[in-house]
Structures are given as C-alpha cells and as structure tokens.
Design brief:
mainly beta
Length: 50
C-alpha cells in the first residue's frame, strides 16, 4: 500500500525534501525507480515522534 508517491526527473545529484508531518510513527520503505520502471534502490525510513 503506497502512502506517498511523487515523480521527479533528475539529471545528476539532487536533494529532495519531503514533509513527513502527516506520517505516523513507524518504519517505511521507499524506492527510487528509473524512467524505464526499474528499481534502482530500496531503503528504509524510520519516523520517530514523541
């Protein structure tokens, strides 16, 4: 189940800031996918809130 999805077209290195205020505390997986639909990498994101 996807909780967030957005497309960016990047040429070279780039930093993208994502607002996580609406995310609940927990562990999420995110993937970077190229323009051909192939997964480049999948990483874990841990959201900690008091």
């Amino acid at each position: 189940m996807a909780v967030w999805s957005e497309k960016y077209y990047v040429n070279g290195s780039r930093t993208i800031r994502v607002e996580l205020d609406d995310f609940k505390r927990g562990t999420y997986l995110y993937a970077l996918i190229n323009d051909k639909g192939r997964t480049i990498t999948t990483k874990r994101l841990i959201v900690l809130k008091p």
